[in-house]
Amino acid sequence: MSGINDFQQVKVVPDRPNAQRLRVLIVDDSAMQRRILSVSLRKQGYEILEADSGQTALALCQNTPPDIVLSDWMMPGMDGLEFCRRFRKMEKAGYGYFILLTSRTDKGDVSHGLDCGADDYLPKPVVFDELRARLSAGERIVQMHRELAEKNRQLSGALSKLQELYEAQEKELTDARQLQQSLVPERFRDFGQGQISLMLRPSGHVGGDLVGFFPSAQDEVLMYAIDVSGHGISSALMTARLAAYLSPGHPAMNLAMQEGPAGIFRASDPHAAVGRINERLLSDMQTDHYATMVLASLNLRTGQLRLCQAGHPHPIIHRASGRMEQLGQGGLPVGLFDGAEFETVETRLDPGDRLWILSDGISESTDRAGDFLGDARTSELVRMLGDMPTNTALDGLMWHLADHAGSEDFGDDISAILWNMQHL
């Protein structure tokens, strides 16, 4: 235990008008030493708590956490080191700066005290000028912890707000994905003469690809595949606009239809329809986006196929004989040049022939080394899938692409149309 001589140069310190009201806990079994310290520190503007033992100090800390602790090392029962260990284990809102008061000067003892959780130590006999300096250092540490805690609180609040915004955006994007997928309500249909299957797989929540079909007359089916440049919401919005241009529910407004005798609407020449879509895009939308597309009209009675390719990958016909044919001359995308000209190519689909219209997300899918699948391997993949039923062949296509890429996450939107001609 310590005595009154443990303090030197005792003098009254004038009030510090700008001092923060920090709470200091003095722990010492000597009432006289606690009194000397508390009187001086109150004069310096501190709020003072006193405890005559480590156990009493722990109870005080539970209800009234101190900012700074001044604890004697040598005390009966629980000494200052054990008190420090337990103090550090307590849950506290802020940081408590711990100073050990000790007459031990051995470096090993001092290191042991710091290892137990003390921030600083003050040798006895206590010099008050040195005590004030140590307390000022403690104040800075406590204040930095407070500022850090406040910044963490503000950051936590900002992160919480960001999380709420992210969740709201995630929900909106999920809803947008469902709306975009609803633009392709029917993924498979058997027309009797043939079967059609569609696939639409955006790389993100929403994408710029779109595929669709609809009967344009009693014996005619119109098919379209669209790939808007870029990804994300702006591309998806342009895709939705293009879907409106090809809406089967409003044939008079459908740019791929024209009115014939007796008010019956039929598919117009594909190149003329694509030309109208190009001009409408340029007049309706101020955007840097453009789109590639294929528009095809198939006569179910004769098998005649009329098709316009506008910058989209070449459609592939897998003949019943096994021969592979590419259609089209490439052509310009829509939405780039006013007055662009397009052409219609014609061929015939016979029973057993399959028409594949694929987006560039397929031929440009990469493997683990970053190499493209390419047109040649895409055609070979189409050949491999030739015996699969129409309604499962596109699932097989996706399985092979995922195997090629080593992942089911693709860097580009993927879309496809498969028409299987059964009989005329």
TrEMBL record:
<dbReference type="InterPro" id="IPR001932">
    <property type="entry name" value="PPM-type_phosphatase-like_dom"/>
</dbReference>
<dbReference type="InterPro" id="IPR001789">
    <property type="entry name" value="Sig_transdc_resp-reg_receiver"/>
</dbReference>
<keyword id="KW-0378">Hydrolase</keyword>
<dbReference type="InterPro" id="IPR052016">
    <property type="entry name" value="Bact_Sigma-Reg"/>
</dbReference>
<dbReference type="InterPro" id="IPR036457">
    <property type="entry name" value="PPM-type-like_dom_sf"/>
</dbReference>
<dbReference type="Pfam" id="PF07228">
    <property type="entry name" value="SpoIIE"/>
</dbReference>
<dbReference type="InterPro" id="IPR011006">
    <property type="entry name" value="CheY-like_superfamily"/>
</dbReference>
<dbReference type="GO" id="GO:0016791">
    <property type="term" value="F:phosphatase activity"/>
</dbReference>
<protein>
    <submittedName>
        <fullName>Sigma-B regulation protein RsbU (Phosphoserine phosphatase)</fullName>
    </submittedName>
</protein>
<keyword id="KW-0597">Phosphoprotein</keyword>
<feature type="domain" description="Response regulatory">
    <location>
        <begin position="23"/>
        <end position="139"/>
    </location>
</feature>
<feature type="coiled-coil region">
    <location>
        <begin position="145"/>
        <end position="179"/>
    </location>
</feature>
<dbReference type="GO" id="GO:0000160">
    <property type="term" value="P:phosphorelay signal transduction system"/>
</dbReference>
<keyword id="KW-0175">Coiled coil</keyword>
<feature type="modified residue" description="4-aspartylphosphate">
    <location>
        <position position="72"/>
    </location>
</feature>
<dbReference type="Pfam" id="PF00072">
    <property type="entry name" value="Response_reg"/>
</dbReference>
